[in-house]
Write a structure and sequence with these properties.
With about 190 residues, this protein is an alpha/beta fold. The chain has one domain: Rossmann fold (3-Layer(aba) Sandwich). The protein contains 6 helices and 9 strands; from the N terminus they run βαβαβαβαβαββββα. The protein has a 7-stranded mixed β-sheet, with helices on both faces. Strands 6-9 form a two-stranded antiparallel ribbon. α1 links the parallel β1 and β2. α5 packs across α6. It starts with a strand and ends with a helix. 5-O-phosphono-beta-D-ribofuranosylamine binds next to α1, β5 and α6.
């Protein structure tokens, strides 16, 4: 059985979609933990609802960088996970974690990478930039996490149209629906090759 751990900071809709597909038997996996840097985010509420252990590890709980990294590694090493899933984790992952799990960390990004990725491209800013550049299409990318932000190997993408009167929020919602369809399938397909 595939064992995953999830890291999230926000509403947690991708996290919830993954756990729901596990619950429905579409994705044969166990989610061992949620690590968050925001103890009051939506993802925490979802984890509690499903009885998944939550670890709140942030610059506030661990102000010393080395202790922050050690706390993350401690959780990751405690569970024998096959994959670490970033589901809206809004902080760059320390290089020590990336090196601990080579080719075993997946992220979802709300643009067609390599476009609109890297520093500054997060959350609504991604969609603002897509609209400002008059792109005709956008969509989520699932990729492996490497030491350079948003530069790891692309595993899957889905395209959606960008419409004339789209606001960043409307486009974000259209992309998010596709994220929920794409992430669990990509986890399943990638895990099958391990
Ligand atoms: C998604 O748009 C994802 O692509 C990005 O962060 C957002 C997380 O949304 N990395 P949610 O917390 O899963 O609802």
């Amino acid at each position: 059985m595939l064992k995953i751990g999830v890291m999230a900071s926000g509403g947690g809709s991708n996290f919830k979609a993954i756990i729901d597909h596990i619950g429905e038997g579409d994705l044969e996996a166990q989610c061992k933990f949620l690590i968050t840097n925001n103890g009051t985010c939506g993802a925490v509420a979802h984890a509690q609802e499903y009885g998944i252990p939550v670890y709140h590890i942030s610059g506030k709980t661990h102000p010393v960088v080395a202790e922050y990294e050690a706390a993350l590694l401690d959780v990751i090493d405690r569970y024998d996970i096959d994959l670490l899933i970033l589901a809206g984790y809004m902080k760059a992952l320390p290089v020590s974690i990336v090196r601990r799990l080579p080719d075993r960390i997946l992220n979802i990004h709300p643009s067609l990478l390599p476009k609109f990725g890297g520093k500054g491209f997060w959350g609504i800013h991604v969609h603002e930039a897509v609209i400002a550049a008059h792109e005709k299409e956008s969509g989520p990318t699932v990729h492996l996490v490497s030491e350079e932000i948003d530069k790891g190997r692309i595993l899957a993408q889905v395209k959606v149209p960008v419409l004339e009167d789209d606001t960043p929020e409307v486009l974000a919602a259209r992309v998010l629906v596709q994220e929920h369809n794409l992430y669990w399938k990509t986890i399943r397909d990638y895990a099958a090759q391990l």
